[in-house]
Amino acid sequence: MTFAATILTLYPEMFPGPLGASLAGRALAEGKWSLDARNIRDFATDKHRTVDDTPAGGGAGMVLRADVLAAAIDSVATGAPLLAMTPRGAPLTQARIRALASGPGVTILCGRFEGFDERIFEARGIEEVSIGDYILSGGEMGALVLLDACIRLLPGVMGAPSSGDDESFESGLLEYPHYTRPYEWEGRTIPEVLRSGDHARIAAWRKLMAETETRLRRPDLWERHEGARVQSPSGARREKKDA
Description:
This protein is α/β, with parallel strands linked by helices. It contains 7 helices and 9 strands, in the order βαβββαβαβαβαββαα. It has a 5-stranded parallel β-sheet with strand order 2-1-6-5-7. It has a two-stranded antiparallel ribbon with strand order 3-4. Strand 5, helix 3 (about 95-100) and strand 6 (about 105-110) form a beta-alpha-beta unit. The longest helix is centred in the C-terminal third of the chain and has 19 residues, at about 200-215. The chain is elongated and about 70 Å long. Keywords: Cytoplasm, Methyltransferase, S-adenosyl-L-methionine, Transferase, tRNA processing. Homodimer. It catalyses: guanosine(37) in tRNA + S-adenosyl-L-methionine = N(1)-methylguanosine(37) in tRNA + S-adenosyl-L-homocysteine + H(+). GO terms for molecular function: tRNA (guanine(37)-N1)-methyltransferase activity.
């Protein structure tokens, strides 16, 4: 089954963009996923192809019209999850990416200006998604991020099936540090344990480093990881005992 991505945007020329290169680009050429970028302006009904209007109640900027957005959404008949990139959306997680990547694809609505007429969310059951607490010019960059995260998980896109298992966020932790040749560079050497050939020691070191990096750099992730680790199989929480 091909993962089908449909993008509803005012700037379809932004796609595939970087998704046309590297692993994603090769996978697109090989038919492992498909892309259909549709111009929202094509669904306007007046001669000026108007897609926005002034905010009700006054204020700066313009708002994308619900009737035009609905026509664009209704033109898509894939049955895939319908997402909108919005700053108030649920933060995108690796767990959500894995769920999306295992499905038939996604339809992503990209906003511009001051955003969407609020009525479109209730009328069309749209899932709002955010990629971070910062401001972008529109939803297209967020859509590219979401698609890149999904595409790399599709069967046959990455090399070995296990090549992404230890990467940051897959296990709830940041990834451990990596090294490669030369052994010594500017007076800095590769940790001895990585040259020992002892796979058990290497695995233990990598686990320790992943935990240390997460605890120091992302205490929020560490807290969630620790909370999950003390959860019993029945779902009841156990109190951590002091050593």
